[in-house]
């Protein structure tokens, strides 16, 4: 096993391979930083080109785009408050607040190093535990998936700061929006109210771009605040704060492990890894009130968690032939185009590909760290453009990206509608993050619970009796009751202290 791994490292060390790593990572960063595009779109566009490449070079190139796209999304999230991809939604909550406070370099440094460390920890997981962890994940059933989704929803609804009632209402509204459209089980339309343009439901990209990008632009246009976020982040500033991330070692390790595990679970993705990492970090933080208002812990958790999912998602791909995310579907397609079948026999029949993918992920993370530090100072100049110049450019990329994803002009109108919706929610002081979380996790929860009930003939008992799902449900109850228990404890303390006074 060691020999093929060393051979793959030797191949990756060749100038041509390093060139593919640098090119893929840089292009992925650019597309990831542009709101509405993202690394996944670039991977799809590059797939036909990889057909003419050597099969290992194709994987190197696509994995580098994958890593660069996830990491690059933090640039616009911090500098503009607009996530370049859904995986950076949580980063925008605190990163942009830090930017407005004149701490753009700190936020970018935390995001860059958090991305690198999360990627390296997930690489260790990929190297050491790929086969056994993929075997364990393959044993999960639908009730287990549903329980984990519920745990993610409960964490943000009941343990975050702010008004819990508004947070819960926002989350439930997100779930409701995710249910609009065609029901694949009953073959009927739900909550469309006669509008055929939403018969297929709301895609995640127009909703998130609308809620975050257009809402932010509307807020900026309507704001009377004349100050602008910090516009300069020199390389020396970024390097000086680069190791600031290690002030939060528990947060880093916890978020990396969460992201790695979320990535291993097929079909979940980097956005959910960031959401759950962020939610758990907020739950255990001593400064919950800072989350959403420029928390360094929030940026670290989000970027560490979303990048760790990349390595985790490669585990089921190379071990079981099951893509862990949408980007992994493209990687799988590239392998099949080159007549290489991913799955349990990949390590035996094609060891150079198996270990080449693992090595490519390592080199891509190193390239990401270097390129992000070098190129971000140039990208920060985008912020210096006047709003009347910047807004049309951002809007153009948003519209192009949203329409090009599904080739539907209706998605552009959906994006505009949710931009107004997000602006209204902000005006009414409803938190946006629970809405986004509900919208992202809602379909997954519905799909898993319906499939589980069909297999159990409508019996809910396995949800509570299976070890994995039962533990997750117990954690849901504990987290939901925690605020109530804390309030009762404080009330009892106040009651006992009164006689003494």
TrEMBL record:
Signal peptide, first to last residue: none
Cross-referenced InterPro entries: DUF112_TM
A Pfam family reported for this protein in Swiss-Prot or TrEMBL: TctA
Coiled-coil ranges from the UniProt annotation: none
Keyword Transmembrane helix: yes
Occurrences of domain DUF112 (ranges): 19-437
Keywords: Membrane, Transmembrane, Transmembrane helix
Residues spanning the membrane: 20-48, 60-82, 112-136, 143-162, 168-186, 193-214, 258-281, 353-379, 385-405, 412-430, 468-489
PANTHER family recorded: TRICARBOXYLIC TRANSPORT PROTEIN (PTHR35342:SF5)
Protein name in the entry: Tripartite tricarboxylate transporter permease
């Amino acid at each position: 096993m060691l020999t093929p791994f060393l051979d793959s490292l030797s191949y990756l060390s060749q100038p041509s391979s390093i060139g593919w790593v640098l090119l893929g990572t840089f292009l992925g960063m650019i597309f990831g930083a542009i709101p509405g595009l993202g690394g996944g779109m670039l991977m799809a566009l590059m797939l036909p080109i990889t057909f003419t490449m050597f099969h290992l070079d194709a994987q190197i190139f696509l994995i580098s785009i994958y890593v660069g796209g996830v990491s690059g999304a933090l640039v616009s999230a911090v500098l503009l408050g607009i996530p370049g991809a859904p995986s950076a939604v949580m980063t925008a909550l605190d990163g942009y607040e830090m930017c407005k406070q004149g701490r753009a370099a700190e936020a970018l440094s935390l995001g860059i190093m958090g991305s690198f460390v999360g990627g390296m920890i997930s690489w260790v997981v990929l190297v050491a535990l790929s086969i056994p962890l993929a075997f364990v994940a393959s044993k999960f059933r639908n009730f287990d998936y549903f329980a984990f989704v519920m745990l993610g929803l409960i964490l943000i609804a009941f343990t975050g700061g702010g008004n819990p009632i508004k947070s819960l209402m926002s989350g439930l509204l997100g779930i409701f929006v995710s249910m609009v459209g065609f029901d694949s089980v009953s073959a009927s339309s739900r909550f469309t109210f006669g509008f055929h343009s939403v018969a297929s439901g709301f895609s995640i990209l127009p909703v998130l771009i609308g809620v975050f990008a257009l809402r932010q632009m509307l807020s900026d246009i309507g704001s009377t605040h004349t100050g602008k976020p910090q516009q300069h982040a020199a390389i020396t500033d970024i390097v000086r704060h680069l190791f600031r991330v290690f002030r939060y070692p528990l947060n880093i390790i916890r978020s990396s492990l969460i992201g790695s595990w979320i990535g291993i679970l097929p079909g979940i993705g980097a956005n959910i890894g960031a959401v759950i990492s962020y939610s758990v970090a907020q739950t255990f933080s001593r400064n919950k009130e800072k989350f959403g208002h420029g928390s360094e812990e929030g940026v670290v958790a989000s970027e560490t968690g979303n990048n760790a999912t990349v390595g985790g998602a490669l585990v089921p791909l190379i071990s079981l032939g099951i893509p862990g995310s949408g980007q992994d579907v493209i990687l799988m397609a590239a392998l099949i185009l080159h007549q290489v079948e991913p799955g349990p026999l990949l390590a035996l029949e094609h060891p150079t590909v198996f270990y080449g993918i693992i090595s490519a992920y390592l080199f891509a993370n190193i390239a990401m760290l270097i390129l992000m530090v070098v190129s971000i100072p140039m990208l920060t100049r985008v912020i210096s453009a006047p709003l009347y110049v910047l807004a049309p450019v951002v809007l153009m990329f948003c519209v192009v990206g949203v329409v090009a994803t599904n080739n539907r002009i209706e998605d552009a109108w959906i994006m505009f509608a949710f931009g107004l919706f997000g602006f209204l929610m902000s005006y009414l002081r409803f938190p946006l993050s629970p809405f986004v979380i509900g919208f992202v996790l809602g379909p997954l929860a519905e799909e898993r619970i319906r499939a589980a009930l069909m297999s159990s003939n409508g019996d809910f008992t396995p949800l509570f009796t299976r070890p994995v799902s039962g533990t997750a449900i117990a954690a849901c109850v504990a987290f939901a009751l925690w605020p109530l228990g804390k309030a009762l404890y404080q009330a009892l303390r106040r009651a006992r202290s009164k006689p003494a006074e």
